[in-house]
Write a structure and sequence with these properties.
Tetrahydropterin Synthase, Chain A, 8 strands, 3-stranded antiparallel sheet, 338 residues, alpha+beta
């Protein structure tokens, strides 16, 4: 009788078999695999125990449970709102935030709603930066600057609350004015674009003109220096020439004066056109040796005066010629000769 109760059909045997099957199912139900881009948070009776990485894992079912999330996936969301700038202009600003989960345990258990916390932190950081930025900086080249400032402020806020979220990037979108002032806002933007264009054109013109002006200035300076050297050298040459003649002039002043007078007259006559006047027969008759030479204005004036008073004209002409520096030198040498 006792041996029959221990056989395959006995209740104890069935209970044992059912227990083994349940145990096997329980053991198998605790096996799970974490993918390469995922992490799993292990909870024991609802309390966080640890975080496991990619690979096969086992936990005792009912006692522990798991929460698996992709921690490498980059998510994004956009935020926009109307805000006041530093110069008290109302502007509508939008940004796109990209983020991922950096600490799974903090993301799941430190804040009630990580996504809502991220939105509130983004709003706070954006309003703080816009409130300290002018309208011109928001809509022009300063957009990247204030975008990086928003990202830095957002990272600090999230680290303070330990949300477990890592900010990948913050992309500021073009700022827009409210609809009822959009036309004026567009005019202001156009004016600023024109200003930048005019500045670029002015810089291009400066780059083109300044080198030419510098070259001309250097050329003029070099020509002036060359002329100065030429004048100085000529003066030194003339001084040396006179110094060479000085001993001879000291020994025979009359002869040297006559010689200098003849050489000076020869030089003057060779460098100037020669005109012969027949004062007796035809006072207005010119015989130029150079073809096409016309009487000078002063000579034409002397012709008219000569008809009235030939003697006075001859005297005045000599007086005018003696008034030149060359004639003064000649007159002084003539006095020395006499």
């Amino acid at each position: 009788m006792h041996s029959k109760n221990q056989g395959p059909g006995s209740p104890s045997f069935l209970a044992g078999g059912i227990g083994i099957v349940v145990l096997v199912f329980w053991l198998l139900s605790g096996i799970f695999i974490v993918q390469p881009a995922e992490q799993a948070a292990i909870l024991r009776f609802g309390k966080y125990v640890e975080t496991v990485g990619p690979g096969p894992h086992w936990i005792p079912s009912i006692i522990e449970k798991k929460v698996i999330m992709n921690v490498d996936r980059v998510s994004d969301y956009s935020y926009s709102g109307q805000m006041l700038t530093k110069d008290e202009n109302l502007v509508e600003v939008s940004i796109v935030v990209q983020y991922r989960i950096a600490d799974l345990s903090s993301y799941l258990f430190n804040v009630a709603d990580p996504e809502e916390s991220l939105r509130q932190a983004t709003s706070s950081a954006l309003r703080q930066v816009v409130g300290t930025t002018t309208l011109d900086q928001l809509i022009t080249a300063g957009r990247e600057v204030w975008g990086s400032q928003v990202q830095e402020s957002l990272v600090k806020i999230l680290e303070r609350y330990k949300t477990g979220i890592q900010i990948i990037s913050v992309a500021p979108q073009p700022a827009r004015a409210p609809k009822y002032v959009q036309s004026s806002f567009d005019d202001a933007i156009k004016a600023q674009e024109d200003e930048r264009r005019f500045i670029e054109q002015a810089r291009a013109y400066e780059a083109k003109v300044v080198p030419i002006a510098d070259g001309n200035a250097k050329r003029i300076a070099q020509e002036a220096q060359a002329f100065a050297k030429e004048v100085v050298l000529n003066a030194e040459g003339e001084t040396a020439e006179f110094l060479q003649l000085l001993p001879q002039y000291t020994q025979a002043p009359q002869i040297m004066a006559e010689r200098m007078y003849i050489e000076t007259v020869q030089k003057i006559m060779s460098d100037n056109p020669k005109v012969f006047i027949d004062a007796k027969n035809s006072p207005a008759m010119y015989l130029p040796f150079m073809k096409g030479m016309k009487p000078a204005k002063s000579e034409r004036k002397n012709q008219m005066r000569w008809k009235e008073n030939p003697v006075a004209v001859s005297t005045n002409t000599v007086g005018e010629q003696e008034g030149t520096p060359a004639q003064k030198v000649l007159r002084r040498m003539r006095r020395d000769v006499e």
